[in-house]
Amino acid sequence: MKVVTVQNRRAEWDSFVHACDDATAYHRFDWKAVFSKSFGHPCHYLAAIDDHGEWQGILPLVHMRSRIFGNFMVSLPFVNYGGLLCQNEAVAALLLEEAEKLRRSCGATHVELRHIARRPENLPTKRHKVTMVLKLAGSADDQWKVFDPKLRNQIRKAQKNGLEFRHGRLDLIDGFYEVFARNMRDLGTPVYAKQFFRHVMETFPDTTAILVVMHEGKMIAAGLASWFKGRIEIPWASSIKDYKTFCPNHMLYWEAIRFAIEHGFGEFDFGRSTPNEGTYNFKKQWGALPITLNWQYLLDEQGQIPELNPSNPKYQLAIRVWQCLPVAVSKLFGPLIVRNIP
User: Where do runs of H (alpha helix) occur along 236-326?
Assistant: First the structure.
């Protein structure tokens, strides 16, 4: 068995990914190009291959380095999932050994592995986030019957307020980005460059779509949907807070669920949340169940698990300042900052 760094063996890599039950959309090889083109980060895509040439495991890693946020590797940054994908623990150990060598040679403080299941058991682990997943009914009518009366009334309210739903692709990306950028500014979070979302959609034209809610010709809520192996996810979604009483998020997610059912998906992934906070409770009302995420680490001699997240007190002042910026300014400087925040 040997571990190699893969540069351009896309077909073999993706063949292995599609054969693994626990693979996610982000394990696909073309995300390597998305990360490189969008952010300029070096990528180390590791594969364990046995003596017969059979692939036994993979580990995609992205190396991030900045003066402010540090020097580290992530599998995978900017998305919810990543980490080891392998046949057994012996293969996992080989891939982790190579990742540790890479960490040391790059002078990185840690390697972050964004696992769903905990693997392996002995690594330092954070379990502070969950993903919320809804098992979909066979028809939109059956799904509607499962919702409680309060949720149905909020969806009807959006419809009575004259909101309209549309879906498309790159034709909607400008409007999607305006909504997303404004919402990120309001949250005090630096925004990705529009080019990142364009790269995602151009790289995965058959498994992505933009879903939007309109009011009197203006886009007020939008999400980028992505799907893989029976599960659909909206990893990036936003709405304009001025229209909150119109319930645009309820229309967006109801129509996204209808879209998923019509296209034959079995699960709807609402994405990452912190238990008992606002977005968690919003997702829970749809019947989505929490699945605890296991973010695991290879650490340097200091042994300190990183805290690069908005709840870290040392970022609170920066968040408040960012919320006061004009949206145009946040779009100009946000991409320069967020490229180094995983």
Answer: 248-262, 278-284, 316-323
Asked if residues 153 and 145 have their Cβ atoms less than 8 Å apart, the reply is: no
| H/E run at residue 225 | strand 218-228
Q: Please, are residues 76 and 45 in contact by the beta-carbon 8 Å criterion? A: no
Report whether pLDDT(285) > 70.
yes
Rounded to whole angstroms, the Cα distance separating 107 from 255 reads 47
Contacts of 246 (CB under 8 A, 6+ apart): 157, 158, 161, 163, 215, 220
- Top pLDDT among 320 and 175 is at 175
pLDDT above 90 covers a percentage of the chain that reads 86
In eight-state DSSP terms, residue 160 is H
Structure tokens at 240: 């304009």
- In this structure, the strands spanning 267-273 and 231-239 are parallel
Give the pLDDT score at 304: 84
Contacts of 278 (CB under 8 A, 6+ apart): none
Task: With a cut of 90, say whether residue 81 has pLDDT above it.
Answer: yes
Taking CA 269 as the corner, what is the angle to CA 63 and CA 80, rounded to the nearest 5 degrees?
10
